[in-house]
Amino acid sequence: MKRLSTVAPSVVVSLAILLFIGIAAVAPNLLAPGNPLAIHPMASFLPPSLGHPFGTDESGRDVYTRIIHGAGASVLIGITATAIGLGLAIVFGLLAGLGPRWLDFGTTRFLEVLFAFPGLLFALLFIVIYGPGVLTSTIAVGLATAPGYSRIIRSRVLVVKRAPYIEASLVLGRSRFFRVTRHLVPNVAGSLFVLATLGIGQSIVWASSLSYLGLGAVPPAAEWGAMLSAGRTYISSFWWLTFFPGLFIVLTAAATTLLGRGLQERVRS
Amino acid sequence: MTALLSVRNLSVTFGAVAAVHDVSFDIPAGACVAIVGESGSGKSVTARTILGLAGRDATVSGSINLDGPDLDGPDLDGPDLDGTEVTDASPRRLRALRGRDIGFVSQGALVALDPLRTVGREIADSLRIHTNLSPRQRQQRVIELLESVGMPEPTLRAGQRPDELSGGLRQRAVIASAIALNPRLLIADEPTTALDSTITAGILDLLAGLRERGTAILLISHDLAVVSRLASHVVVMRDGVVVESGSTQQVLREPQHPYTRDLIAAVPGGHAHVGSPAGDPVVSAVGVTKRFGSRVAVDDVSYVLPRGRTLGVVGESGSGKTTLARLTLALERPDAGAVELFGEPWTASPERDRTARRPRIGAIYQDALSSFDPRLTVRQILADALGPAATVGGRATEAELVTLVERVGLKATVLARHPRVLSGGQQQRLAIARAIAPRPDIIVCDEPVSNLDVSVQAQVLALLDGLQREFGLSYLFITHDLGVVRQVSDELLVMKDGVVVERGATEAVFAAPQHPYTRALLAAVPDLWA
What is the ipTM metric for this complex? Predict the structure, then answer.
């Protein structure tokens, strides 16, 4: 009980939201047993009601069901993109932080060049080359976020590698491999966990943006960005087509960010 | 004689924790009273409570009364604070009190100054708030103040920022700002703790001079030697309670309470080291030199460390002693000369040849905690250290771990804990356990007891001595504390600016120092045993 009382309410709310979205992603039928693609032309553009809490779209598909079933795709894109970004960042960060000076110089300049592009522009460039689609947009978002993570990881590596405990391990006669795997990587990874949590929300927003632009998932797939895009045409008459997918994108991003912040404070204290 | 400050039945509690309990003492005008005790004894809390800085969570009871005639201050106009009850005073009145009537030199003197502002502005601040001097007069007064605290080139220094000053000069600047308004009482909380011995001597002389000019001083210290130099009365505190008080002479010469006796006995340097006979050389350095840029940190230093003996290295900050330790550990590559381990090349061989031999030479550091991986428990740290020496395929058994922690005087229950929850003494014991785990022949000790309370310090030194006898260890013992070095070392190197200015058997150096610097160092030690 004492533990719970020390957790900030924002973290509790975030956890509740993420739990809901997590269940939606893993087992959507628990929350919305219907078929997200089933059309009912007779029941199109119904406003939110008890039967259709989020209303229905132009083909009479239940928006609530589509959002719940779309959670899996959105969350998967978010997690995969973050994993790609962090994975690349670990490689770059470790190379720059641990490698010889010329390698650090080269890697850092390369990252600075990537940094010069706004992330979304970089993702667009990648999609222009490799074509639109869920996979390419995911990779594109991952690539676009990698430079930022790399910098953070590099600076962490530079701090940790000079820590007295790494030197103490050297004095004990431990190999470089042991020092890196036993002490350096785990201590750098601590901050990665926080970064990843913060990053997933951001990646979902970016992936949704790409879908909205028609470069990621495309309608009728129940992906939040694609749903936003499809609802755009009717935004002035049927607000619920865009409001609810948008709400869920915001909720997920806000919840992961708040949770990440909470974790950060925990790590600090 | 009426007391300037009179503290009666002062108790301070934080929640359920009683930090200070029923403390009473008086400070006569112009006298110096010292509160002595170890970490957690409540001495700093007492000082902060007198300043009205106990904090919002603190419950204060008892009375603190400030009385006595005003000193003649220049152009000081303000409310007369005679007979002020500090415990009842409003925040506004307390602010007037601090600075004007009570000056405070805090423990963290090195961080007490704003890094972005010049020293002169920092000192002028209290003049601006509490007096109606014109800017020009303030400037003039700042220079006078800096002069009076022995700051060389006061006009230049007033325009510098704290990071441009050495530790000793910064401490002088803090004292200058504390006495800017001629307070009747100066509270100095560990004013010399982070300073070298010759600088400590200078600060103590400065405080003694202030006392002679009529400022009363409340000195908070864990260092009995410092106290013996400055204070006329001593209050010994332990766990928030006064266990003994009286004149300095009486308390230090004829301590009544067993705790006071322990404290005095724990002061290092009271008895000389009795070493084992010297064995074969284990480490030898020949003409090692290390430069950092244009600065020569270690200049042509040679030494031989025989088996079972301790070589002490003394010197002040910046004398190159830590660099010498790092060269000995082959953590730095010498620019000239070489260190040999058991007659074989050590600094001259590549790291991959050294790795296998590294377990033979261990190290313990001043800041033990930062030398432990923050994620690991005591068990994991020691298991890692035992790795190469453990019996079963490089994995330490529980029995080996228990034997190891018990050997350094820790309980087996600490194994499951993280080092950060241990006390300073326990952390240093853990560092020693880790250092002896791979069965080394040599341990390089870099200021291993400098962060510890005096009684804990004595225990750790005794532990190191016992281990030396048991395992025939050789120590290269780096310290700035002459008392400690006298107690532990057989031979001594005295370093100044990277050069060995004097060497020899420890007792011989102490009895008849040859080099002027050594004499200055020895003279600067506030000696309890003189």
Answer: 0.72
